[in-house]
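Researcher: Please translate sequence to structure tokens.
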Amino acid sequence: MTANLTEEEFSKHQGTKFHTRLDARETDLDLKEVKRYPAATTEQGGMERFSVFFTGPRDPFLPQGSYQMSHESMGRFELFLVPVAGDEQGFRYEAVFNYFKDAGGITQPDRAASE
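Model: Translation complete:
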């Protein structure tokens, strides 16, 4: 199954677990927030811009990079994750999406890109 990496699709799964691994260590990340970015008045129309925020444990810490993700409904896909915060409970990670929608729907990105 090919994942539909849109704001709408991620929003359906807020509060659920996504599975990934760092080397041989497996871990689950919780999808905590899906944040839409409004279009600027000077921006070309037809953009899909949003971030997804995950929380994960302190160990293993996931350094900035691309990770193979899996989700029971969304399937398998790759995301570029950036650690954006941490405390004694764990870490918060962000994946940023910024791409054009085509006239027939969505032009899917190959992977999320960090800003």
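Researcher: Any highlights?
Model: DSSP finds one helix and six strands in the chain.
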